Structure to design on (288 residues):
């Protein structure tokens, strides 16, 4: 019996030692930001809730669809919650607390893991995105080194573990920043009341003797970046292209490799590219 206890403890220690820490990945620490309560180390949109329905500890992240009065228009808008790591600032190259949408990170994990529950309205789905990035001093943007993206509509009434492999872009460059984003609902469709996603205990995992996976999207190039009136995407068989703003709202959906961006306001955007094989990559782009 003592051998079994010692062996179990050793296995647990080995598993934990391979996990790379995500700041406040257990969502135990929260602070008031403006009129809303948000997990420390994360930037959030409205409809993010501090939930006592945790997988472990006291709190979990709950992202749901809810209604809020738009302060600009005084209209009642339906909002799908979004949460992402880091501070909502346009800071310089990666520095803890100043880099947009991320935190300083230099490891090379194989996957991101965590626990989730989900209750979705019809035609809704959630997304969990993780990226390891490197600041490009030439383009003044982040180059994605590894990425995991998971979109699902499957209901889960009890906490369920997920493990998403981080797919390499083809570069062996050491990342300097990690970025994680959670979407409560389908960003390309109308928002539906009743949708809710709970996430807890996020972590990066490095497995021994793992075989690197390289995406067919490794050669995708997006230019110019920064951009002004148009964007060109080259290097892959593109199925669709979607541009989201800094808070996760979709502002452009297209199948064209060259498309107009003149109506976009200056700022930071995320360009998500899907190829004909169904693989997805996301590029961070900036409009002047």
């Amino acid at each position: 019996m003592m051998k079994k206890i010692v062996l179990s403890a050793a296995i647990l220690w080995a598993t934990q030692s391979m996990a790379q820490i995500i700041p406040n990945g257990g969502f135990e620490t929260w602070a008031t930001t403006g009129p809303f309560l948000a997990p420390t180390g994360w930037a959030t949109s409205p409809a993010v809730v501090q939930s006592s329905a945790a997988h472990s500890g006291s709190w979990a992240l709950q992202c749901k669809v809810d209604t809020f009065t738009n302060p600009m228009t005084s209209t009642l808008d339906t909002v799908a919650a979004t949460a992402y790591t880091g501070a909502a600032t346009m800071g310089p190259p990666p520095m803890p607390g100043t880099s947009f949408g991320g935190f300083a990170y230099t490891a090379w994990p194989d996957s991101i893991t965590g626990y989730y529950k989900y209750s979705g309205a019809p035609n809704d789905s959630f997304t969990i995105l993780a990226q390891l990035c490197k600041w490009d001093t030439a383009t003044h943007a982040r180059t994605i080194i590894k990425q995991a993206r998971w979109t699902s509509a499957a209901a889960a009434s009890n906490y369920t573990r997920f493990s998403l492999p981080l797919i390499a872009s083809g570069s062996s460059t050491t990342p300097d920043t990690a970025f994680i984003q959670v979407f409560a609902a389908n960003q390309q469709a109308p928002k539906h009341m009743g949708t809710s996603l709970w996430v807890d205990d996020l972590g990066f995992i490095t497995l021994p003797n793992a075989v690197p996976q390289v995406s067919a999207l490794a050669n995708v190039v997006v230019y110019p970046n920064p951009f002004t009136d148009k964007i060109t995407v080259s290097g892959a068989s593109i199925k669709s292209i979607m541009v989201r703003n800094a808070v996760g709202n979709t502002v452009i959906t297209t199948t064209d490799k060259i498309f107009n961006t003149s109506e976009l306001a200056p700022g930071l955007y995320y360009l998500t590219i899907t190829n004909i094989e169904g693989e997805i990559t996301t590029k961070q782009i900036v409009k002047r």
